[in-house]
Write a structure and sequence with these properties.
The strands form seven sheets. Strands 18-17-16-19-22 form a five-stranded antiparallel sheet. A four-stranded parallel sheet has the order 3-2-1-13. A four-stranded antiparallel sheet has the order 5-4-9-10. α1 (23-42) links the parallel β1 and β2 (46-53). The longest helix has 30 residues, at 378-407. By secondary structure, it is an alpha+beta fold. α15 (445-466) packs antiparallel against α17. Among the domains are: 110-255, Methionyl-trna Synthetase, domain 2 (Beta Complex); 378-525, Isoleucyl-tRNA Synthetase, Domain 1 (Orthogonal Bundle), CATH 1.10.730; 589-670, OB fold (Dihydrolipoamide Acetyltransferase, E2P) (Beta Barrel), CATH 2.40.50. The radius of gyration is 29 Å and the shape is globular. It contains 21 helices and 22 strands.
Length: 687
Amino acid sequence: MQNNFKRILVTSALPYANGHIHLGHLAGCYIPSDIYTRYQRLQHRDVIHICGSDEHGVAITISADKEKTTPKAIVDKYHEANKESFRRFGILFDNYSRTSLPIHHETAKEFFLDLLEKGFLLPKEQEQFYDGEANMFLPDRYVEGICPNCNYDKARGDQCDNCGKYYDQLDLKEPKSLITGKTPVVKKTKHWYFTLGSFQKKLEEYVAGHSKDWKDNVLQQTRSWLKEGLQDRAVTRDLSWGIPVPIDGAEGKVMYVWFDAVLGYISSTKEWALLQGKPDKWKEFWCDSSTRYIAFLGKDNIVFHTIVFPSELMAKTGYILPDNVPANEFLNLEGGKFSKSRNNAIYVKDILERYPADIVRYTLATNLPETKDSDFYWKDFQAKNNNELADIYGNFINRTVTFVAKNFENKVPVRGVLTERDNDILAYVRSAPQRIGDMIEQFKFRDATMEMMNVARAANKYFNDSEPWKTFKTSPEQCGTTLNICLNIVRSLAVLFSPVVPFSSEKIWKLLNQSGTIGNEEWMKAGETQLHERHQLGQAEILFTKIEDNTIEQELEKLGSSSPVKTEEPAASIYAPLKAQITYDDFAKIDFRTAKIVEAEAVPKSKKLLKLQIDLGFEKRQIVAGIAEKITPEQLIGKTIIVVANLSPAKLMGVESNGMLLATAADGENFALLTSSKDVETGIGIK
């Protein structure tokens, strides 16, 4: 973070209060913002996290129509439900407000009147669809037709969900009213328009100033709008639910939700300040240039936070603009889009009935759609829990604390003379806060989470290599030193992992019998030795339990036949199409090594899998490869192959594989292992 900022304002997109929060929402916005805010608090920076329910607009009235109730009943129901889901999931907001509150209505009216007085809001007469049978003008979402851009036959009145194109509702082909199903007529009405185009130059300069620090997807979408040229946008609409337009001649009209919703960040901060007993404190976060404002959201909200909201703030004057808008792409489910109507959704309230929040948080954090759409797969959820949280992180903690409980009276052993191995692991852990912190500062939460687990991997390796079960008998002092270091690493990991898995971290804190909470710790000191010798530990417990296969099968069955059906495409050529380009940084993350195969055997009950024992020079490993139909175990013994050495462990047919060998993807005569052309040492890196 830049040193000239005194405080940080974090906002998360206001979710519509017309349905339950699902995993797609969490991955798009709320997990990243929570990780970021928790990390900044551990850095002891002045930071607040602001959010709330978006309770106006046609989406609310449509939900009310479907449930045969009132808009107020809808927002009351889903506001409380989503607030509770966020709480149970561990998303910490300093304030979670509502746009239906008087403080928000007052804020929105203040902005409207100020912009009107300055000449940024102009009345215009326009033509709009009107349903004569329902006796009302039709807001955009009450009209459906054929998209004028891509011919999608269920396009909404203002934007096509298929191609993403925005347009005037009158451009829809074959429009129909969603209220009566009739073809609407065109009728004149008056609305007030925001002169968005008058801010074109200022916005271009604003965006250009962030060309090096904003994500590529944010820049591209924003620049495409600017390139087309900004047009005036209506800020009022004919609707009964919303904030009444506070001027004469606008009876029966409310503010368009796009105009008032983003102002919910400001009104929520005002409410927070009132609850603090300092009603003017909100101005420090919104009107002081020494505040850094980070706006978290999904890609469907980008232009509203890089163009629309900034232009409103520019027009009002005296407000800061977002310094960064780290928008994520979409999270899909089992290869298809999240869809309530097709039973293809996982709601937070439901998944928390069956699994601890931290397992879900970790799985999402390792698979965030930061640069492109990603997928949530139940099998991957199981693997992340079993192979990483349980077998790596949880295993290291459990084996450490149980060993100490059994052999050292459940007290931190005395540390003796340090070996080279001891110093290496201590140096690695000391440097972890800086490495991980840099990734979080750059909004690379997926990489940061993976690096947290890498520290746990290194700790496991240190435990194995130190062999305390042997040194306890042969060198008690060395054994005590090993366990002293391991316990301090457990403490370090609890702090480092806390932004991602906060509930488990607090359990570890109690297990270590530490006072206070992790939130009081200092991030940059997380890698230091802080457990005193002979310190009494708490009661050990299993942090992560394995998820059985039948449990996952049940989850897949719940999705029903609506889940996408994957069909095999006919093979037309041995040449597969090129995959999407990657950067050098992406490639550099892969650790290729030479390895010698020392043992090979078939995996029982499998026609394709072979279990291989490989020697990497510095350690031996087991990998599983699907090459049994192409080569015999006897042919493999002694071969020096190329492997991916830093691949997350996985289980195939119940057999753990810790790496992957490289071979051609072709069958038959075109199959070949990637091997060394001459005899080289094992464990050598490949560039």
